[in-house]
Write a structure and sequence with these properties.
71% of the residues lie in helices and 0% in strands. The protein is mainly α. The two termini are 36 Å apart.
């Protein structure tokens, strides 16, 4: 029995190690490509690590952070502002809407609750033309506001769904006790429910932030001014300039991924609690 248990543990850890390796391998390739000199990018057979110490360089990172070559900081700021606004507004609207789904009773509540996710039945490419016409007609073309509106359309339905399920797991007795003590429904939401729902709110915020941060399709349609480009648009522009270098592209891609990784690691425990919340009746 001991040998069988040891064998099973070895298989389990081997599969975990293989999964981690497969998941991390693209990032390793990205990192080592970003610190190679240009001639090492095209050697055959390809090598993951540079062969000599002289083949290592940080020039690609210096070039990416050089505004005269690639305005990375400007694109970074555009992406951060757009993603932060989208996430903040999405969390605020989803909090109010999902709480009404979970606790209030009014005509059409179930229909509205189920219909908000219908937007995911249609691919983004099908919505580009009607959204483009709306954005142009209201005078928001080539503005960051247009991206925030479109990203809200993409993220708000699932945010409503996620928070609604979590709010239902909060015991009603706690809210009823607060109402008896004189709190209004809105006061109960902000003083009682939201502190208890911090894991779910963190999960929704990170989810909406990642979608906005990585989105390319709508940004490529609604933005034409280079100074308003987000990072995905800026990275794509590297392919069509005389400044394109493969190592430089890998350096810019790695720097683009860093904020999401840091944000995810910093709130990982909240995300895990938010995803498992409501799974056990307590």
């Amino acid at each position: 029995m001991v040998r069988r248990s040891l064998f099973r543990n070895l298989w389990f850890y081997a599969l975990v190690a293989l999964t981690v390796l497969l998941s991390a391998f693209p990032f390793l390739v990205m990192f080592f490509s970003s610190v190679k000199i240009e001639t090492q990018q095209y050697i055959y057979p390809p090598r993951l690590l540079p062969a000599r110490l002289s083949d290592w360089t940080l020039k690609n990172y210096r070039d990416v952070l050089n505004p005269s070559i690639f305005p990375f900081t400007r694109y970074f700021g555009n992406s951060f502002v757009t993603s932060a606004l989208t996430s903040g507004i999405s969390v605020l609207l989803a909090t109010l809407g999902s709480y009404s789904f979970a606790r209030l009773r009014y005509p059409g509540r179930h229909f509205i609750q189920r219909s908000v996710v219908l937007v995911y039945m249609f691919g983004g490419i099908l919505l580009v033309v009607p959204l483009f016409q709306i954005i142009v007609n209201v005078g928001l073309y080539d503005t960051r506001v247009s991206l925030v509106i479109v990203y809200l359309m993409q993220t708000l339905p699932v945010a409503l769904y996620m928070l609604g399920n979590y709010f239902r797991s909060v015991p009603k007795e706690i809210e009823e006790a607060a109402i008896i003590d004189g709190c209004s429904r809105l006061s109960v939401l902000f003083r009682v429910v939201l502190p208890l729902s911090a894991p779910a709110i963190a999960s929704v915020f990170i989810y909406t932030f990642m979608i906005s941060w990585n989105e390319y399709l709508f940004a490529s349609v609604f933005l034409i001014s280079h100074e308003k480009y987000t990072l995905p648009m800026g990275l794509s522009s590297l392919f069509y300039t005389e400044h394109f270098v493969w190592g430089r592209m890998m350096a810019a891609s790695l720097l683009t991924a860093v904020p999401i990784v840091i944000m995810f690691l910093s709130v990982q425990r909240f995300i895990a609690a938010g995803l498992t919340g409501g799974g056990v009746k307590g």
